[in-house]
Model the fold of this input.
Amino acid sequence: MEAEKIPEFNYIKTYIDERELIDSLIVEGHEDKINYNLFSNLIYQPVGDHEYNKYKGFFIGKHLLRESLGFDKTTKPGDFDIIIIPFSGEKVFFERSCAIEVKVVRPTRRNPKRNANSIGEEQVYGLINDGFPLVGLIHICMPEPLNENEKIKQRYITGGVGENASKVPLDEREAVDVLFDHLAIVSLDNQMRRLVSRGFPKYVGLKTVGLNIEKDYSKMLTFSFYFNTQYEAGYFNPRTSAQTISKIRTYWEANKERFIKAKK
Done:
């Protein structure tokens, strides 16, 4: 049996702008499958198992100018970063549409607590007032890679779990030490604390995620171990507008080519 490769956590320093990050993270791989871990707080948690199981997939629009959907162009957000519309075999659930604002945080080794240039507060309240059924805010923390002497030592057990598990039981005595670049985890937890402290309405779905780029330019996403769904989960906007739902439907019907049809 081939020995399992020990992760090196040697990330590269690169700059990816907000627009490109949105384009590359909303779906996984080349199958146009929605990145569930990024959006579960809005596509699953507000409706639960029974309703979520009805979904076949999601129509995803990105970088949509607000005036193109019939909104006043003089207010924020100027464009809608991500709009997600669930669908089943029989129905498109416009009344469950999610509008999500995305911000990028770029912590450095010298300034690991660096904040986003804009936290997105004005845009989130704009989405609430616009009347979108579900409103979310995602902060993507893309830190500078740590030097070897700055990483922390962590025990790593080979063998994997779940679908990646080998038939050999995990044995802690065979654990090895690896040097782990932990800045993404520190950053995303710091950022969630910031968002919670701003007092957003509890129905706003909050998500912070760490992003590192590996040597082959693949993306490594990291999610919080400490903040559970009581901070992340969104639910329906009490200011949901029937007029807004109608605008989403009208735009979708006239511009289906602007939407990715993503699998569940």
In short: The mean pLDDT is 88. The first helix runs from residue 18 to 25. The first strand starts at residue 27 and ends at 28. Helices lie at 18-25, 36-43, 48-52, 121-130, 183-197, 229-232, 242-254.
